Amino acid sequence: MTAIKETIRSFIVENFLFGDEAALPADADSLIAGGIIDSTGVLELVAFIEEQFGFTVADSDIVPANLDTIEAIAGYVGRNASTAAAA
Q1: Which runs of consecutive H residues, i.e. helices, occur in the chain?
Q2: What is the DSSP letter of 58?
Q3: What is the pLDDT of residues 3-18, one digit of tens each?
Q4: Which has the closest alpha carbon to 36: 57, 19, 52, 13?
Q5: Residue 85 scores a pLDDT above 70
Q6: Which H/E stretch holds residue 62?
Q7: Is 80 exposed, middle or buried (0-12, 13-18, 19+ CB in 10 A)?
Q8: 3-17+29-86 falls under which CATH superfamily?
């Protein structure tokens, strides 16, 4: 697991699952449909991403395609953090 995925997974486990790592399977299909993150949780996740990875998440990017799985979040962060670092 990459460092970005580990950071995101740790945040989700600590903030939404109260440290219960077993409640977040490695192959979780959907954080939203699975009831792990709700609409308020998405906003908390966005704030974490912005603070941790140093870029602003555009309102138009707050969609399930970018934020519904750890894999999708890590991909989104990887694409945007590298762009922010180059600027």
Answers
A1: 3-16, 39-53, 64-67, 70-86
A2: P
A3: 999 999 999 999 999 9
A4: 13
A5: no
A6: none
A7: buried
A8: ACP-like (1.10.1200.10)
